[in-house]
Amino acid sequence: MEGDRQPARELTQLRKDSDTRETLARARRTVRERGLDDWLVVDVDAHHFERQSWAEVVECIPGEVVRDIAKSFEQNGVVFPGIVQASGWPQHQDIGGRVSHDHGLEERAESDDGAHRDVVLIRRAMECLAIDYQVTFPTPMLSLGLHPEVEVEVGVAEGYNRWLTGNLLSTEDGIHSMLFLPFSDPQACERLVEEYADHPKVCGFMVTSVRYKAVHDNRYMRLYRMIEESGKALGFHAGPNWQHEGYVGQLNRFISMHAVSFVLCNIVHLTNWVINGLPERFPNLPVVWIESGLAWIPFMQQRLDSEYLMRSSEAPNLKRLPSEYIREMYFTCQPMERTNMKLLEATFEAIDAPNRLLYASDWPHWDFDLPTVITDLPFLDEQAKRNVLGYNAARLFGFDTKGR
What we know:
By secondary structure, the protein is α/β, with parallel strands linked by helices. The protein has a single domain (30-397), classed as Metal-dependent hydrolases (TIM Barrel, Alpha-Beta Barrel), CATH 3.20.20.140. Strands 1-4-5-6-7-8-9-10 form an 8-stranded parallel β-sheet. A two-stranded antiparallel sheet has the order 2-3. The chain is built from 16 helices and 10 strands. Helix 8 (221-230) links the parallel strand 6 and strand 7 (233-237).
C-alpha cells in the first residue's frame, strides 16, 4: 500500500499574479461535476479592473481639460484613477491580503488573436465557470457618482465607454456590458444612449446607485423613454458607501458597511421609482437591480404595500400595489443570502424568481458566487434553475440560447 501512494502535491499560495484558471480550479471542477457545461449560463454581473488599463481609458476621454487632469494622477510613471473620487471606505476588502484576487488580477495574459488583456482574463473566468455570456462592469468607477464635478463624471464615462466598446466589446465572444451612464448630467446620458443603443454588445445602460440623484426627477424622463424605445434594459448597480456623513458613517466595521450600503442605495432608488409611478409611465422599460442580494426585496414589497394602503393619495400614479410592480422587475442574485432556506424560498416566490431572477457571479470580487448556488437549491425544479442561470437573461437581453 505504501508504494501505491502518490507523493503529496505542494500547494502554491494564490496571489494577485496567480492564473485565473488556477484560482478557479476547484470551481471549474465543481461546475463540471454538476454538468453545467451543457447548460446555458449567463452571468449578469461580473467585473474587470479598469484601473489596470487606466492610461488607455484616459486617452479616450474626449475633453482635453478632464483628460489632462486625469493624466496628472501619476505614480512611478503609471497613471492611476485618482480623478475618480472613492466613497470614503478603506481599501481592505481583501481582509489583510487573504483574498488575493479582489483588488486586481496581475497575472500574465496573452492571446493568440490579439485580444485585450482584460478579454483574456474574462475568457478564462467564463471557461472555468461554464459561462456562455458575461455582462461586465467596471470596479473603481462604481463610486464615480459621488464626484462633486459633473464634468469629470461625464468625461470619464465617455472615455470609459469608448475604451470598453473598442477593446472588450469588439471580439467575437460572449462578453457584453451595460454602459455607464453619467447620471449627474441627463443630456450627456441621452447622447451616450443615442450613440451606443445599436451596438450589438451593449445589452443595456447602467446607473451606479451610489449617488444622491432622485431617479424620478423630471429631467430623466426623456432618457428613460430613449432606453425604452431602444429595447435595452436599465440597470441600477449597487456599491459601497462609507462616507462620514449620514447613517452609514456610524458603522464601525467593513462587514457592517458592506451589509447595509449595498442595499440602502437601491432601496432608495427602487422606492422612488415605484412610488412615483415610473413603471406606469415606462411599462416596456426593463429595470434590473444589481448586486444588492435578495433579502431586502420582500421587505420592500410588504413595507410599501402597507404604506400605500394607508396613504394611496400620495402615490396617485399607481394602479396596482407596489409589490406587483416590483414583482415585474429583474434582480441579480448575488450575493445570495442562503443561511435560511425557508426565507430564501419565500423570497423566490415573492419576486417570481423562476421568471425574473438573473444569475450573477460578481467575479472576481471577494464574495463571488458560482452557478452552483442556483443548481444546489433544494426547492427549485430543473426548469426554474435553467431559467435563473440563463434563459431569463437570454430573453431579457436577446441572447441566442445556442439550442440549449
